[in-house]
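I have been asked to look over a protein record a colleague put together. What it holds is a sequence and that sequence's fold in token form. Please read both lines and tell me whether the tokens look consistent with the sequence. I do not need a full report, just your reasoning and any doubts. This is what I was given:
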Amino acid sequence: MLGAPGPSLLGTWESTNSMNSWTYIPICGVGGLFLALAIVHFRRRAAMRALAVRLGLGYFGGAFPRSLDFVGTPLEGITATWNLLDGELGNVRVVAFDCQVGAGKVSWRRTVIAVQIESDIFGLAPDFDTWMTAGRCGAWTVLYEPKDSISLGSDFMRIPELEARLTAINTENSRI
């Protein structure tokens, strides 16, 4: 019989290994989630770089100053840092960064501001959140949101709040 369709290699492969359209939906969903997370990460990085420029600070990505030590504090278990800003505001050294403390399911992420000064500089900053914690780490005064606090929407300090706190430190410390 001429012209009678017979089994083709391509037809056999398609029927046994093809994915239907329902398979693509979860794949696209996971891909979309990763894309959204990447966009949020890149936007925050760009905002932190812009903040560094506005305040005259350096942007150092994930580098971490050796003089800053969190021994004896909840921040002692920092496993990763990123978006690190470092420089002087009002003649005092300031470091601000995003970090992850711990690993796995018990880890938590926060923005930390550290100021190398003997006085309680954070009493001068605007009080955006009453659940922020200020503490001492050697020669540094540190401000962060503790693990047990309620984070509404993000684990990190919003950029306008971070800028207001850093600006207040600069303004108040320049008067001293």
